[in-house]
Amino acid sequence: MLPFSRLSGFILLASYQVRASSISSTTYTASGAFPTSLYGSYWNDPTATSAQPQPVITDPVTNEIFPYELTDPANFPKNDTVDPHPLPTQATPSQLMEQALAQIIAIATNPVFGDDTCTKCQASLAIAKMLVLGAPEQGPLLAEAVCQYFDYSTTCYDEYSALALGSTFSQVLALANAGGYDGQNLCSHIGLCSVPPAVPLNMTGWFATPKPNPLPPPIQPSGERLKVFHISDIHLDPRYAIGSEGNCSAYMCCRENAFNAATPDQIVLPAARFGSYWCDSPLDLMAAAMEAIGPLTGTEQSGFNFSIFTGDLTAHDSDNQYSRAYVEYEEVVFYGLLKKFAGPAPVYPTIGNHDTYMQFQMIPYTMGGTLGTQFNWLYEHISSMWQYEGWLPEASVAYASTHYAAYTVTRPDGLKIISLDTNLWYTDNYYSYINSTEPDPYGILRFLTDELQASEDAGERVWIIGHVLSGWDGTASQVNPTNLCTIDRFSPHVIANIFYGHTHEDQLSIFYANNGTVMTAETALTASWIGPSLTPLTNLNSGFRMYEIDSAASFLSSPTFDILDAYTYVSNVNEFPALDNQTQVGPSYYLEYSTRDAYGGNITWGANDPLNATWWHLVTEQMLADPTLVQTFNTYQSKSSVAGLDCTGECIPAKTCYMRSGSSSLAYQNCPAGYSSTQ
Fold first, then answer.
1. Rounded distance, CA 198 to CA 606, Å?
2. Above 90 in pLDDT, residue 554?
3. Is the peptide bond before 130 cis (omega within 30 degrees of 0)?
4. Dihedral sign for Cα atoms in the order 659, 660, 665, 669
5. Considering the chain, what is the average pLDDT of its residues?
6. DSSP per residue over 108-162, as a string?
7. Looking at the whole model, is its pTM more than 0.85?
8. What angle do CA 212, 218, 220 make, to 5 degrees?
9. Are 541 and 579 in contact (CB under 8 A)?
10. Per-residue pLDDT band at 465 (split at 50, 70, 90)
11. How far apart are the C-alpha atoms of 95 and 134, rounded to whole Å?
């Protein structure tokens, strides 16, 4: 019997033979000529063999002849400009805002993105950017609507309307690279992205000359001690209301409209006349502090040799309560008091992040037009005030008025002061997120480098003053500007000291060679002193400081301008309520500590040797060996406030790590987060 496969083969073969016999031929060859009878007429010669026939075709519906150009191989239309190509109806500005909000909500709730908050944030910023470019006036409305929808705040209008930060956000989004580094950087500020890494620096050509090797021999101490006053973060509150709520649920406390949500109809903690832990400085406190300066520092008759003010005049009002007039009022009041009580020698001031309107914000001049010059009123007024008080020469004032209030001045004793607007790298300055891959978008570090180079060429010693610190825990400043190694290049032979404010706390950071790749006493270059605040906000005592520095009383010796000791004076805010309803006594300020005595007990150091970066590194070594010294530092950080937080466990090494971080990039790279403040 045949297998099934062979049997099926025979059947198929027989079937084919039967069908083939019924077909006349299995091959047909067509004519070589085109059958011209197919169509009545042609655009070309249909018998030609060099081109396809182009018959004339009529549409039986419209009775129109299709043009030859429609199919002409050499000239057919490359773009259809005849038929309609519908586009959506143009949206009104308000409709654009509504659609932008809807898309942001859709991105936030799209399960495809999962927990990727960074992608969600940057995608949302990109949508907002398109809105503000097309309808700028809708930007503040979108900011307010996003705030409300995501329940970011209970005061969205006050914070994000066009009268507050809404206009600033709109400018920033229009100018920033929302989908790139700028966007990630901005989203990191609100906790939705990780902080982007510092951009690798290209220092080629940045410095006019290399660092001298060997360095010039160190200047020997002159043996003369002069007194320098340092005051910071006044935050004078002329709207302070005595007896109002001092423990409120939202800023600002000690105001007529402040309340505690737990008992909104009853005051929990009446605002004391001289101040409260949750409030800024009333004028009563300011006057008391000014009166204490001379008697405590021994300068009642002689006065200080000079003073420095590291910024922040105004109270922590919400943005909608700020104005140019408010800032200018505070400038006039405070500078007048400072000249009266710290004079007659000059005060060298710098500008704080609260000393502008809108507060925190400074835009690069390079943005151009009215946007680039919108803060010129501030630089012109504040520099004019410095000239009015007799603190700065005309050339310094002229420069400050057109360069973010930055200036230099060389004192008669040879010390050069360089004042920088370091708010330009502040993380709450939203304009600093524009072109944030650039280490110097404002040009302020170019100015600093050139001035330091000139000082090196002239053999000068320099003090640098600013407000927003460059390092510590890193959260206050952008990583790229503070990663620029200008300090390394000119330390320790040119830069004697650096001074900041801003945190309200008593802190210090050290700069090391090669941006801190090796941290030893030998590589420590310069210390940055972060001055204590006069304001008690938040949970701090009120304080100020005096330095004793090495400086010649005459021109017969060469001064180092190094700090030989620092004395911090404080007043206990928890005692202020007992001073109410009487006028016999006011707050008591007292010497909290001498820096040399507090930290130098186990360090072999001469009585006239400077408290420089090397000394401070040795202090950090002592802290790691003896944690009680960190706890001492932590106490003084809060100005000995009874409300200050303790420092234990991981906080111990964290504090020393912050002290060894002159730039924010080092802090992000090396230090545990969350232990920077005692508040």
1. 40
2. no
3. no
4. negative
5. 93
6. HH-GGGTT-HHHHHHHHHHHHHHHHHH-GGGHHHHHHHHHHHTT--S-HHHHHST
7. yes
8. 160
9. no
10. very high
11. 12
